Amino acid sequence: MPPVARSQLLAIYERLYSFFGPSGWWPGETPLEVIVGAILTQNTSWRNVEQALARLKEEGALSVERLTPIAEAQLAEWIRPAGYYRIKARRLKNFFRFLQEEYQGRIGALIEQPLEKLREQLLGIRGVGPETADSILLYALGKPTFVVDTYTHRIFSRHHLVPEETDYEDLRSYFLGALPEEVPLFNEFHALIVRTGKTYCRKKAPLCGDCPLGDMGMERQINNNQ
DNA sequence: CACCAGGCAAGTA
DNA sequence: TACTTGCATGGT
Question: Residue A105 — left, alpha, or beta (φ > 0 → left; ψ -120 to 50 → alpha)?
Fold first, then answer.
């Protein structure tokens, strides 16, 4: 039996959806913009990423044709507001090299590939870890994977819904195993988790008293204390 | 001023 | 294998 039972997980989803309403994620107009945003937002506030994306649009550079051959130093300068701009320029170039070499620069060709093969390929790119890979798969390509992030771990471990030591792949497996395989559900659930984390589950100043999850998870905590 | 944000990889023991 | 550190801007 997984740490999070199916019925409990769906109840949590319903609670969050009732509280926040639909999220409309991912905030990006094209698959390419979603992919670039996924790399730029690594350990970085979305507000900063927006500035970098806006700059790329101003420069007319937000396309596969422009980004594939672009000079890394030039790209770094344009994405500077997103932070870690040198390493992220390298990571973006790594992605576009992969896209060119494996798929002739065609994002449409990615979508035809099976989920697990594509996930392994993305994880093989330097600078694309599990969260970035799953974000690209779900939000840019519409594949049925679940995106885990720091908020997922923080919220679920704080509510004693999973053990503190649960890692990324374990959390992803729990969600995938407990939820019906529906892209819109995976999409909305992750968005709701991030919205919950931003408002009610910060690293400091937790504000757990006002958390929309209320006391969901307390039963498990009592069980653990037996 | 300190701390944090929708990670990831490289270095160390 | 299991920690630790570097990467960097911008908002609270």
Answer: left
